[in-house]
Amino acid sequence: MRILNKLASAIPAIAMAAVVLGLSVQLVRAKQAIAALSSEVSGSIVHFVAGAELPDVPVLDEKGPGSLRGSCGKHGSVVYISSAQCPFCAKIAPDLNTLASERTDLRVTNVVVVGTPADGLRTPARVVTAAPAMVSEHLHVRVVPAIVAVDSACRIQAAGAGYNASRAVLRFLALREET
Question: Which of 16, 41, 96, 101 is at 20 to 30 A from 108, Cα to Cα?
Answer without folding.
Answer: 41
